[in-house]
Specification:
0% of the residues lie in helices and 52% in strands. The protein is built from no helices and 11 strands. It has 118 residues and is mainly β. The strands form 2 sheets. Strands 2, 4, 5, 6, 9, 10 and 11 form a 7-stranded mixed beta sheet that branches. The protein is globular, with a radius of gyration of 13 Å. The termini are far apart.
């Protein structure tokens, strides 16, 4: 069973920055793609950033130009650098790994809480 462990969440004021990390128990190059999703109370989980096996990235419109997804294939770790944080970014952030065999059913981590508040 693939394990994904997120870290780096916390409380940050509006305009601040955070870096989230996701350590994966298997080689991340073996996955079709990696991503970050988030879920706030009363809302469905949404994907906000994706990185493919070839390194192509894609972002949800509300985080474009503020968030950056990256990966370290040696450390099997995926990162999400979040800048210019807004109160509406408050959510639990989850790491995802999509296997080639079932792209639409990714593995998910347990999540890390991000609170943007003054």
């Amino acid at each position: 069973q693939v394990q994904l462990v997120e870290s780096g969440g916390g409380v940050v004021p509006p305009g601040g920055s955070l870096r989230l990390s996701c350590e994966v128990s298997e080689s991340i190059v073996s996955f079709y793609g990696m991503g970050w999703g988030r879920q706030s109370p009363g809302n469905q989980r949404e994907l906000v950033a994706l990185i493919s096996s070839s390194g192509m990235t894609k972002y949800e419109d509300s985080v474009k130009d503020r968030f950056t997804i990256s990966r370290d294939s040696v450390r099997n770790t995926v990162y999400l650098d979040m800048n210019s944080l807004k109160t509406e970014d408050t959510a639990v952030y989850y790491c995802a790994a999509a296997p080639y065999t079932d792209v639409d059913r990714p593995y998910w981590g347990q999540g890390t809480q991000v609170i943007v508040s003054s």
